[in-house]
């Protein structure tokens, strides 16, 4: 999973690995960079080889022509893991996912991708709609699915969901394990350096526009879309536990939808936090629902200038009760989408926009056929 140089216990190991590779390729033109690197090692001392930046940069540029049968050293940093399956614990995974390059310019051609992260219990009944959505946009997206560990996905090799399942654990509604699963999705997706935007979805979600509109919208936005608001009612501030002070003051307490879209910077904040996480784990128990407060509060405190404070995922609460409406076959029509899409208004990069919601939930499996039928006329799929 991690680049091999991480496994080197000290500079000597690392040095030995480079050396053996050098002899295998056995080309005289490698000799000069080898000497340069070797003298560098002697000069700086082996502890510098602990630092990925120093070790990688000279070797990738100098050794590249010599080892063209093997992937370049830089490739091992840039290429996503070939398999999503791994045995890292959450602690190990979150650590590995929290690396952020300090040099902001990527030294290779990077096409930013959108990570679509599906938090599900089992099957994805709307997958045919998503297959249609992704078609023709290869290289611009990646998919991650977290489901109950007991569920075994069975997608054919030609499916976009084939082998996109990540190592998962049991999650329960209203429990911190739900936030763990979200962090697990983010962390697995962060391991692919090309992923720039991260969207949390469920098996009942659908896209409201075609891929190119959604991609352009995310790419052009100066903010991440996380709903985060303050509300004096018992359902918001009423769930604050004064024991959280002084770490979290009531004035910092926020509520918001679980369904978010964040960029790489914000995603890293979410994965690396342990301090606020602990406070929520201990002090936010039903009727405090951790998935409605943890990220909205954390990101309000740590990254308030980076978030738009609104979600891009529509949920219909108009029917009342503690669960949102579910739409089935009978609900789906052109009129239905007109009602959703027309007359939207929100701020996008500080300006009024009529595109505010990019995804919607909750849709029952029975909605699939009418959705496929309307996909090209109403949702702009081609
Ligand atoms: C993962 O597997 C490796 C080798 O198979 C083992 O050494 C390591 O302890 C495992 N890690 C976890 C977290 O299970
Ligand atoms: C979350 O689930 C775990 C394991 O089932 C349980 O021990 C814990 O009390 C639950 N926490 C809350 C807040 O319900
Ligand atoms: C979101 O709210 C925070 C604090 O309440 C504010 O600083 C920030 O500017 C808001 N974001 C946008 C895009 O308006
Ligand atoms: C978005 O942010 C960039 C960089 O900070 C800035 O140059 C640009 O003007 C911003 N765009 C809008 C529409 O606010
Ligand atoms: C943006 O929307 C607000 C609220 O509807 C309105 O008051 C304002 O005039 C609009 N601004 C522009 C530039 O259209
Ligand atoms: C996406 O939808 C928009 C609006 O419906 C349309 O103009 C555009 O051609 C569509 N793009 C693709 C690639 O289908």
TrEMBL record:
Signal peptide: none annotated. It comes from Dendrobium nobile (Orchid). It is a single-pass type II membrane protein. This is Core-2/I-branching beta-1,6-N-acetylglucosaminyltransferase family protein. Keywords: Glycoprotein, Glycosyltransferase, Membrane, Transferase, Transmembrane, Transmembrane helix. The chain crosses the membrane at residues 21-44. Its main location: membrane. GO terms for cellular component: membrane. Pfam families: Branch (PF02485). It is found in: Membrane. One of its GO terms (molecular function) is glycosyltransferase activity.
């Amino acid at each position: 999973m991690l680049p091999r140089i991480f496994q080197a216990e000290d500079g000597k190991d690392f040095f030995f690995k480079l050396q053996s590779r050098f002899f295998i390729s056995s080309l005289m033109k490698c000799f000069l960079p080898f000497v340069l690197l070797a003298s560098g090692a002697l000069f700086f001392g082996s502890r510098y080889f602990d630092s990925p930046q120093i070790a990688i940069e000279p070797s990738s540029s100098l050794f590249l022509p010599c080892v063209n049968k093997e992937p370049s050293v830089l490739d091992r940093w840039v290429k996503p893991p070939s398999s999503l399956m791994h045995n890292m614990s959450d602690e190990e995974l979150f650590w590995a996912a929290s690396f952020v390059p300090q040099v902001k310019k990527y030294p290779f051609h990077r096409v930013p991708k959108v990570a679509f992260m599906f938090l599900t219990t089992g099957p994805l009944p709307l997958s045919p709609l998503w297959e249609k959505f992704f078609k023709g946009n290869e290289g611009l997206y990646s998919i991650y699915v977290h489901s109950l560990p007991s569920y075994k996905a069975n997608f054919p090799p030609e499916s976009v969901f084939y082998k996109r399942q990540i190592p998962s654990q049991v999650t329960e509604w209203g429990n911190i394990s739900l936030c763990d699963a979200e962090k697990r999705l983010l962390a697995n997706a962060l391991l692919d350096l090309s992923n720039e935007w991260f969207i949390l979805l469920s098996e009942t979600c659908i896209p409201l526009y075609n891929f190119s509109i959604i991609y352009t919208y995310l790419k052009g936005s100066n903010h991440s879309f996380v709903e985060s608001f303050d509300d004096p009612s018992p359902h918001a501030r009423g769930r604050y536990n004064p024991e959280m002070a002084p770490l979290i003051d009531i004035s910092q307490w926020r509520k918001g939808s679980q369904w978010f879209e964040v960029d790489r910077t914000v995603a890293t904040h979410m994965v690396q936090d342990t301090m606020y996480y602990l406070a929520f784990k201990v002090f936010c128990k039903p009727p405090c629902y951790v998935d409605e407060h943890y990220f909205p509060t954390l990101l309000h405190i740590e990254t308030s200038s980076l978030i738009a404070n609104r979600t891009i995922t529509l949920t219909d609460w108009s029917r009342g009760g503690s669960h949102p409406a579910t739409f089935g076959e009978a609900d789906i029509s052109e009129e239905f989408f007109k009602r959703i899409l027309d007359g939207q208004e929100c701020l996008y990069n500080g300006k009024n926009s009529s595109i505010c919601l990019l995804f919607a939930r909750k849709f029952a499996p029975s909605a699939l056929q009418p959705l496929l039928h309307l996909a090209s006329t109403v949702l702009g799929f081609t």
